[in-house]
Amino acid sequence: MTKQSIFGRIAQLAKANINALIDQAEDPQLMLDQMVRDYTNSIADAESAIAETIGNLRLLEEDHAEDVRAASDWGNKALAASRKADEYRSAGNAGDADKFDNLAKVALQRQITSENEARMAEPQIASQTQVVDQLKNGLNGMKQKLEQLKSKRSELLARAKTAEAQRKVADAVKSIDIMDPTSEVSRFEDKIRREEAKVRGQQELAASSLDAQFESLEDIGELTEVEARLAALKSGGSPAVSATPSTPGITSGAPYTPGE
Fold first, then answer.
1. pLDDT for residue 124 is more than 80
2. How many other CB atoms are there within 10 angstroms of residue 230's CB atom?
3. How far apart, in whole angstroms, are the C-alpha atoms of residue 170 and residue 87?
4. Whole-angstrom Cα distance, residue 140 to residue 146?
């Protein structure tokens, strides 16, 4: 994987809107699990690439510092050679004076070369420093997003477990709800009510049969009184009027005879 792709992923993942991604997902929990894996892997890749970039920056800084030191050292050597040349020239030794002046020139050339290399490295060091700072910020952003993802995942898992527990409780309550016609308790109650109704029906049937028996007895008493009055008529008398209803086996008294 190239550095450019890693840096692009850092920028993309650091800017990701987690809530929007969750809203668009068919299964938020699976999506979050995958995102946690992606972020974790991307962070590991980014850390490796950023570490390499920081290492290269430190090498540039070390080379720059070395060029600065070299320029200073060559400057000091040029100064020393120039002073030595002046001493020889003051002593009338032109040959040695020229020799040390040439050495001073060589030192000055080396100083200029080191200064140029140091100067050329400075923009690159500044640019690399800016890139490293941006990458560090992006990496920190990714790590914060990863913590958000883990928190969201934990929250969803907890909510899913709570919802499952609530569903089980609701199912358990529903199974014993006496108002639920599909429950076992309701069916058992309905069976008892039918048995009670059957008993009431039997009692009502028995009561109607007893009433019929009493009505039969009343009919027999009435027929007996009719026969008695008919017999009285035949014997020359008139039928007696009973003050109270006659009952079987009980006479109403002697028949009434006119003139008595």
1. yes
2. 11
3. 107
4. 10
Tokens 């079987």, located at residue: 248
| Measured CA distances, 210 to 6, 206, 217, 224 (Å) | 102, 6, 11, 22
Whose tokens are 């958000």? That residue is 148
Q: Using alpha carbons only, how large is the chain's radius of gyration in Å?
A: 61
Helix axes 3-14, 28-90, angle to 10 degrees: 130
3-state secondary structure at position 260: coil
Listing DSSP states for 163-226 in one string gives HHHHHHHHHHHHHT-TT-TTSHHHHHHHHHHHHHHHHHHHHHHHHHHHHHHHHHHHHHHHHHHH
99-114 per-position pLDDT tens digit: 999 999 999 999 999 9
pLDDT tens digits along 23-44: 555 566 777 787 788 888 888 8
* Residues 221 and 242 sit within 8 Å (Cβ to Cβ): no
Q: Could you tell me the maximum CA-CA distance found in the chain, to the nearest angstrom?
A: 208
Q: What is the pLDDT of residue 251?
A: 45
d(CA 109, CA 6): 43
Amino acid letter, residue 133: D
| Nearest-angstrom CA–CA distance, 173 and 83 | 105
Residue of higher predicted confidence among 94 and 2: 94
Main-chain dihedrals φ then ψ at residue 241, nearest 5 degrees: -100, 120
Token pair, residue 260, equals 């008595």
DSSP 138: H
User: What is the 8-class DSSP label of residue 249?
Assistant: T
Which runs of consecutive H residues, i.e. helices, occur in the chain? 3-14, 18-24, 28-90, 94-175, 184-234
Q: Which residue has the higher pLDDT, 10 or 41?
A: 41
